[in-house]
Design brief:
Length: 356
Amino acid sequence: MSGTGKKIAVLPGDGIGPEVMAEALKVLKAVETKHKVTFQCTTADVGGMAHDKHGTALPPKTLELCEKSDAILFGSVGGPKWDNLPSDQKVERAALLRLRKHFNLFANLRPAICYSELASASPLRADIVGNGFDILVIRELTSGIYFGRKGEEKDHAFDEMLYRRDEVERIAKVAFETARQRKGHVTCVDKSNVLQSSMFWRRIVNEVHRGYNDVALDHLYIDNATMQILRRPRDFDVMVTTNLFGDILSDEAAMMTGSIGMLASASINEKKFGMYEPAGGTAPDIAGKGIANPIAQILSAAMMLKHTFGMTAAHDDIAMAVRQALKDGYRTGDIMQQGKKQVGTKQMGDAIVARL
Ligand code: IPM
Ligand code: MN
C-alpha cells in the first residue's frame, strides 16, 4: 500500500559503495512508482569513512538509525587506507560483525547464480557450466568460530567453535523452507569426520529434516564440497553450513559465476529484519571512476524487497530487468564480452530502470 513508508537505513560505506548505492536507490525509486509503495531512505556513515569522521566504523547515530529502520541496505566497507588499524578497530569487524551480532542476523543467504547470458565469463569449462547454475549458500552468521571464546597467551592462541542446538535448528529450518521454494534439495556441509561441533550440527540437521520429508537432504564434508561444486555445479541447490565453512564456500561459489560484481546477499534474523549487501567489496582500484558494476547492489536491494518486505513480485521484476539488460548486451568492464556494449555504473543503472 502507498503511504506506509518502509524505512530503509542506507549505509553506502567506502570505495565503490556510494557509486553502486546510487544506482540501487534509483531502482528503488522506480519500484515505488510501479508497485505503489514508498521507501523512506536515510543515509548514514559506516566503515572507513565513518572511522575518519567519527573515530569509529559504526557510529552510535548510524546504529540508532538502523534500529529505527525496517531494513539496512549496506554498500561495502574497508580499503587499504584502514588496513593497519588495531584488530578491534578494523572496519570489517567493527562495522560488519557488530551489525550482524547486534541484530542477530543469523541467516546469511548468498546466491551464486551463473546466468546463461554470462556462462562464458565463468572460469569453469563450458561443458561443466552448461546453461549456468544457481547455488544458494546459506551460512550461519552469528555463532561458531567467529563468535566463540578466543584468546592469546605468550605461547598459544585459540578460537572456540561452539554451536547450540537452537542455533543449528533455526538455520536448518531456513534451509529446508528455502529449498521448498526452489528445487527442494539441501546439501548440509560440515566436517563431521573430525569436529565434534560438526557431528552435533549434522545430527540436528537430520532431526529437523524429519519435518521436511518433501525436501531431499544429503551431506558433504567441507573439503569434498569445495571440490564437488567445481565438478558438478548444476547438481546443487541449497547448501547449508557453519559460519567459517560458509565464508569459504560462498567465495568459491561466487568466483565460479565469473563475476563477483553480480552477487547479492541477505543477512536476516527471526523477525525478517535484514541487512542486504553485495559480496564484491569496496574495489578500491576502481573506486570513483564510475565503472563499477552496480548489479550486486541492485540485486541486494531486490533481496531486501523479497525477504524483509515480502514484495516477491517487485524482487522478480528487478531480477528480470537485470537479465534483460544483460540480454540486450549491456556490460560493465568486469563482465565485458566481445561484441557487447561496454557501459559505466550509471548507464547500467539506467538500462535496468528502463526495463522495469
Ligand atoms: C564476508 C567477509 C567477512 C566475513 C569479513 C569481512 C569479516 O569475508 O562477509 O564473507 O568473514 O564474514
Ligand atoms: Mn568472506
